[in-house]
Amino acid sequence: MSQHNITCTCFFLIFYSYRKIEKLERNNDKEGERTRIYKAASASHRVAPLSAGNVPTSSIHYEPQRPDLPPPSNCFHPLCKTVDGTLKGGINQEGINFYNNLINELLKNGIEPFVGIMHFDYPLALKQKHGGFLNRSIVKYYKDYSELLFKTHGDRVKHWTTINEAEFTAIVQYMFNIDNISSDQTCINTKICTKTYTLVHNFLRVHAITSKLYTTKFQAIQRGEIGLVISSGRYVPYSSNPEDVVVAQRLMDFYWGWILDLVFHGDYPRIMKELVGIRLPKFTKKEKHMLKGSTNFIGINYYTSHFVRHESNRTKIMADNYDALAVSEDSNAEGKILGFKDQYGWSNVYSEGLYNFLIYIKEKYKNPKVYITENGIASSKISNPLKDEHRIAYVAAHLNVTKTAINAIEVLFVYVRFKFDVDIVRLKNQKNNAKNLESTKKGTTS
């Protein structure tokens, strides 16, 4: 008998926690904002597309107004006002109080919080003084920070995620260098990159140690769970050419196998070891043991899917992992697209890709618990954001395929969270910016 467990979070939870908080943070004093990596990048006239605070959104119309809640600290991180971004510099109690009040308010209104420990950004001091996530020492600081959150919020928070889209973050920051964070000139000049893999290596190390901390010290008492979040999609061969057929699985391995093979099997995908070679950092036996089985669930962020074709010349790859020797495309060799083009934006609506990805995860990783942590459709061309029947249709289509996936799988837990506009805008801008940067280097226009 199949077990069905679908939880659909209220829209207000998402818009409140992501939009209202970000707005309040931006409206507070600017000193604290500059203590974050992306705020600092923005202040120095760099593009910071991963910072939601720098992306305009129409979601403001949906924000619940709660003037009785105190304003937060002027940055997301409870440690951001400290001298070095660590517990040694003290705790930003104002930030702790704000999130305690927010969690209480959510629970009072029947909304269960689902908390990400880190969503891209973190204290600038950790990068300036310690090298950030390129330095192995980040594990200690991240563990200390996580323990603080478990102690202060864990009595009410039952779902934690350690890292959001480690694979996406690493590629955007240290392959495409869209955020101007990377100083890896070899990667920029030759597209042979190393720091991308170092970043994910340390992301996974902090995930493993944080997961162990929670499961050994807090889980039995607090009765919660901990996992990590990946981006997701389904790659479909661009043509019937055998190379295109093979590359569809290869790119899946280079994005999601990169994370999940280590978490479930304790090692990198074979194809990554073949194509990346010695640039892949090695985990110790102890770290591999700690990584394997280190997640209670997998969170997936799904928006759309793509065709993919083989590309043997890495210099021609602009918006995918260079080492995968693959290029994702919106249409295939016959000019067909996946699903249909949204009339109010630029994304293809392809709910079947979500179904296929859920089945893929179930079959490849022995049916882990899955939460859908992001899903939505960008609508930059819509004249009235409040008249959004197309969004209702998008949500309904993805709920329907999720139900179908649950019926096809003996046990699949799914938490459905819908977050609109900003993430699709971010993802599309990343790829467009990567292509534009590449064209500029070549002296052409894209």
Description:
46% of the residues lie in helices and 12% in strands. It contains 15 helices and 12 strands. The strands form 4 sheets. It has a 5-stranded parallel sheet with strand order 2-3-4-6-11. The chain has a 3-stranded mixed sheet with strand order 5-7-8, with helices on one face. A two-stranded parallel sheet has the order 1-12. The protein starts with a strand and ends in a 5-residue tail after the last helix.
Give a quick set of tags describing it.
12 strands, globular, 446 residues, disordered N terminus, three-stranded mixed β-sheet, alpha/beta
| SSE string, helices as H and strands as E | EHHHHEHHEHHHEEHHHEEEEEHEHEH
Overall radius of gyration? 21 Å
Mean residue pLDDT? 78
Identify the overall geometry. globular
Tally the helices. 15
Instruction: Report the biggest beta sheet as strand number plus sense, adding barrel if it closes.
Output: 5 strands, parallel
Strand segment tally = 12
Q: Helical proportion?
A: 40-55%
Q: What is the CA-CA span between the terminal residues?
A: 53 Å
**% residues in beta strands:** 5-15%
Class by SSE composition: alpha/beta
User: Low-confidence runs (pLDDT<50, min 5 residues)?
Assistant: 1-34, 44-77, 410-430, 437-446
* Strand order in the sheet with the most strands: 2-3-4-6-11
